[in-house]
Amino acid sequence: CFEREVNFASNLLRSVRQDLTDIQAVCDGSKKQTNDTRDLLNNLSKGITPPTWKKYRVPPRISAMQWMSDFVARLKQLDKLATLTTNEGVQSLRSVQIWLGGLFTPEAYLTATRQCAAQSLQVSLEELIMHVQMLDQPSQIDSNKQNIFLITGLKLQGASCRNNALFYSSAIIDDIPLLAIEWKMPTDPALSQKKEQSTRSGQANTSEFHFYERGVAVLASALE
């Protein structure tokens, strides 16, 4: 999962650097202008992100400055993960806090955590159920538990979170300091049966929190 992220980031970074190098060469007169550099200059002069840079999901009207700041933040996280892997090994990634919104394919990371837990527990992916816990700090995690993955940088829209519970809130956005994801086998037979039914129907399990007629969402990125 992280190897694909690093490869994707490296290729995109190489492309962006080449575009900026070409623009600089055109500006100082050492290179003739082409249709590609003309389009780049036209977009950047208006603060528009070049379409060739939008290789991952971002808001359609994101400015060039916003895109660059976001891209740099993503690169910093991947650089940190790569350094950690080199110094402490792949297993160290299981305890690191991941900015989910800073991944190019966050859904692939969630799938990878499930695969990792299934391999550790020696069960199939379909047998595992995701349990989430909203925390204020890492020290609240039970050190004896395995297959726990930490996610940071999440925001809650339309509600607030206190002591691992959701409440109505007048605030538009509330931070989730830390989210712990744990994949476990269902201990309640009724829950297991309910999971099988929801899997067959293609619907997600119903949360214990019901916010009827109210828009509540978890945001992985603050980009607008």
Automatic annotation (TrEMBL):
Among the GO molecular function terms of this UniProt record, one is:
dynein light intermediate chain binding
Kindly list the GO CC terms recorded for this protein.
Answer: dynein complex
State the InterPro entries in the record.
Answer: DHC, Dynein_C, Dynein_C_barrel
Q: Dynein heavy chain C-terminal domain: from which residue to which, for each copy? A: 2-185
Q: Name one GO biological process term.
A: microtubule-based movement
What superkingdom heads the lineage?
Eukaryota
Q: Which residues cross the membrane?
A: none
Q: What is this protein called?
A: Dynein heavy chain C-terminal domain-containing protein
Which lineage ranks, top first, belong to the organism behind this chain?
Eukaryota, Metazoa, Spiralia, Gnathifera, Rotifera
